[in-house]
Amino acid sequence: MLVNADFHIHSCFSMASSKDMLIKNIAPKSKLKGLGLLGTGDGLHPKWLDIIEQSTTPSGDGIYSTDNMDFVITTEIEGKNKIHHLIIIPDIDAARELSDRLPSRNKSVDGRPKTNLNGAEIFELVREYDCLIGPAHAFTPWTGMYKSFDSIYDCYEKKVDFVELGLSADTYMADTVDELKDFTFLSNSDAHSPWPHRLGREYNQIELKDISFSSIRYAIKHSNIKANYGLVPNLGKYHMTACTKCFKLINPDVAKDNKMKCDCGGRIKKGVDYRISEISDYDEPHSPDYRPPYIHLMPLAELISTVYDKGVTTKTVQNIWQRLIDNFGNEINVLISADISDIEKVDLNVSKAIAAFRDNTIDITPGGGGKYGDINFDLEIKEKKSPKIITLDNF
């Protein structure tokens, strides 16, 4: 069976997460998105595990279900050097034991526990519980594994189960790095709120024998991901090298010459695009035969918001979003499979924007420094513009 799965979210117990990140809210919103399987996130937090047990029914082999939505226990751990690791856990009992053993001072406070263990030590610990492990948002400049290491093996010492790409990268960027040809890629949302423009903003279409931890493990280990879906990397807020204060895009060589300090006084952060260029082996992607396509999309409410220049949560945007959901069942159907001619009958402007995504004629000003990129949906413009990069002459 083919299932749309998002393995990386957070609960109400994680820093900067919505208090509404509860199972009772996440499950129905995920159905509207078009997801069928979710990671719980924060699976080492004792109180969150209590809520999971109270809010779901065990469905056997590591799956917990409610409101026709299935969950598998997952967590993100911040290890040594502030590197984030994504863990998929066999069941709640294993999660509780692992939580007890993980050396961490904040694991009962923050849903994302911090530990001084390095990647190899975390790998060995979670392997005792038959968990799956890989780097979370592997290339991001603050907490990605590649910010500190030039090789994934320098971090973990052994082969991990997957690599999570993150919002500022995609398959085609990652497949310029030769060592990654042997790894399954996951694309997940890292959602901190239950809105459908957060849940499943990146997700995986995965082929499973059945809904179970064993099938998830088999599918990831045998590269049974059939498609990755996610943002155009340019839209990611860490895609380009940029100032974290004024957000202007800055040539990486200029940034290094100026000791990563912007003329506004802000700190310059190296972009995912440049970091991958530093560790890449090829100018163009060398994807292995088993690698599935990466399909670019944008959360429907954000797309409507951009088209009409209205806030995501305004009545204008939400009313259009709801009409589309009423007509096509869920958001993924609208973005991926509904006929453009049918979408036109609901909203002509949105249909043009979806068509632009599908045929790759959108115009993007890239993001960087913590600011998401911007889209121009003037669909008469077919020639893409180059972003303004600060050089030595105009720094």
Helical content class: 25-40%
CATH class of the largest domain: Alpha Beta
CATH second-level architecture of the largest domain: Alpha-Beta Barrel
Spans where pLDDT lies below 50 across 5 or more residues: 379-385, 389-395
Tally of helical segments: 14
Under CATH, the homologous superfamily of the largest domain reads Metal-dependent hydrolases
Q: Report the strand count.
A: 16
Please compute the radius of gyration using only Cα atoms: 21 Å
In whole angstroms, the N-to-C terminal distance is 54 Å
> Under CATH, the topology of the largest domain is which?
TIM Barrel
Structural class: alpha/beta
Mass-distribution shape? globular
Whole-number total of structural domains: 2
